[in-house]
Amino acid sequence: MTDVSVLPSLIGKDATHEQVVFCNDPHSGLRAVIAIHSTALGPALGGTRFHPYATEEEAVADALALARGMTYKNALAGLDHGGGKAVIIGDPSRDKTEALLRAYGRFVQSLGGRYITACDVGTYVEDMDVVARECDHVTGRSPAHGGAGDSSILTAYGVHQGMRAAARHAWGAPSLAGRRVGVAGVGKVGHHLVDHLVEEGARVVVCDVNDAAVRRVVERHPEVEVVPDAPTLVRADLDVYAPCALGGALDDPTVEALTARIVCGAANNQLAHPGVEQALADRGVLYAPDYVVNSGGVIQVADEIEGFVFERARARAARIHDTALRIFELADAEGVPPAVAADRMAERRMAEIGRLRGIHLRGR
Ligand SMILES: NC(=O)c1ccc[n+]([C@@H]2O[C@H](COP(=O)([O-])OP(=O)(O)OC[C@H]3O[C@@H](n4cnc5c(N)ncnc54)[C@H](O)[C@@H]3O)[C@@H](O)[C@H]2O)c1
C-alpha cells in the first residue's frame, strides 16, 4: 500500500516509536497501520480504531499519536503494558467484514504478542471476538468469550475518582457534594458519570448534541439541568467542567470563557494544542490530565487478560484518585501544569521499571 520511502518522513515527526507495521490484504480490503510506541513496561496495549481516513498519511499520524498516548496512559495506570494502537482505514458501517477483521487478526498475531489489541472508536466487543479467531493477543472481548463487556462503567468510575482528587486539591475535601458540575456529552461514559455525581449530591448540568442521550439522563435524574450546547455550558456558573464528548474540547476560546475551577472529564486529547495546559494554569484552573483520569477502560481490558474480576479492576481504577493527587502535588512542587507533571511521572516509571530488564532472567 504506502510507498515505504515516505515512512521516515511520516515517523520523523514523532520519532520515538519502536515499530510501525503496514497491513495490506487487497482481497478483504484491509488496509491498517499498527503503531507500537513503547514496550518498556511490557507488551503494547491499545485499541483498534476503524475510521475512513482521507489519506494514508492521516491514518499513520493518528496511529502514531494514539500509540504514544497509550504509553503514557498505561504507565500511569500502573499497568505492565507499553503503548500501541492500530487504525483500520475504511468506513466501519460499509467495509467491516469477517474476512477483513480476520485478516487484521493474522497481522496482529504476526507480532508475536508485542501488541495486544482491543476496541476503540468504530470497533466493538463482537469485532474483537472475530479478530480473536485468528489471534491470541486480543482483549476487550464479549462476556460470552470471557470478556469484561462495556468499559465505560470503569472509565466513568475512574473519572469520578480523579474529580474527587481534584476537589481535594482545590478545596481541601474529596467531595463534589453541593458543587455545580457541567458534563459535556452524556454518552456511554458521560451518563454513568452523571449517576456518580448525582449520587454524591452534586448539582449537575449537561449538554449533548444527541437528544436521546439527554432524555436518558433526565428520565433517570429529573433534577439534572440541561443547556443547549457546550459553549453555553462552559459559560455557565460551574465549579467543575467535565468534557466527555470529543477531543480538542479545550481550545483558546473555551479556556477564556471557562468559569469552572476544575476541568476533569473522560474525553481523550482534550487539549486542542500545546500551550493550553499553561493557559489553564495561568487562569487558576486545575486541569486533571485526561489520560490519567480516563484510564479505567484500559485498566478493565488489561484485567481481562488475567481473567476478568470486576472488583480487582475497580480497586485498581480507584487508585486513579491517588495518582491524580500525586500529579497535582508534583505540579505544584515543580512549578509546572499538571499535564507536564503527569508526563514526567509516566516517564519516570518507564525509566525505573523498564531498567529492570537489564537484570537478566531467562525467558522474561
Ligand atoms: N468508553 C470508554 O471506556 C472510554 C475510555 C477512555 C476514553 N474515552 C473517551 O471519552 C469520550 C466519550 O466516550 P464514550 O464512550 O462515552 O463515547 P459516546 O460516543 O458514547 O459519547 C459521546 C457523547 O458525546 C456527544 N457529543 C458529540 N459531540 C458533542 C458536542 N459537540 N457537544 C456535546 N455533546 C457531544 C455524543 O452525542 C455522545 O452522546 C471520548 O472522547 C472517548 O474517546 C472513552
Automatic annotation (TrEMBL):
Superkingdom of origin organism: Bacteria
Record: residues binding NAD(+): G185, V186, G187, K188, V189, G190
Record has Oxidoreductase as a keyword: yes
Biochemical pathway: Amino-acid degradation; L-valine degradation
Active site positions: K85 (proton donor/acceptor)
Reaction(s) this enzyme catalyzes, per UniProt: L-valine + NAD(+) + H2O = 3-methyl-2-oxobutanoate + NH4(+) + NADH + H(+)
Database matches in CDD domains: NAD_bind_Leu_Phe_Val_DH
Enzyme Commission designation: 1.4.1.23
Keyword list, A-Z: Branched-chain amino acid catabolism, NAD, Nucleotide-binding, Oxidoreductase
Molecular function via GO: nucleotide binding; valine dehydrogenase (NAD+) activity
One protein family per Pfam: ELFV_dehydrog_N
Annotated localization: Cytoplasm
Claim: Ribosomal protein is one of the keywords in the record: no
Chief place of localization: cytoplasm
An annotated GO cellular component: cytoplasm
GO annotation terms (biological process): L-valine catabolic process
Domain Glutamate/phenylalanine/leucine/valine/L-tryptophan dehydrogenase C-terminal: 149-358
Top EC group: oxidoreductase
Subunit structure as annotated in this protein's UniProt entry: Homodimer.
Protein family per UniProt: Belongs to the Glu/Leu/Phe/Val dehydrogenases family.
Protein name listed in UniProt: Valine dehydrogenase
Protein species of origin: Allostreptomyces psammosilenae
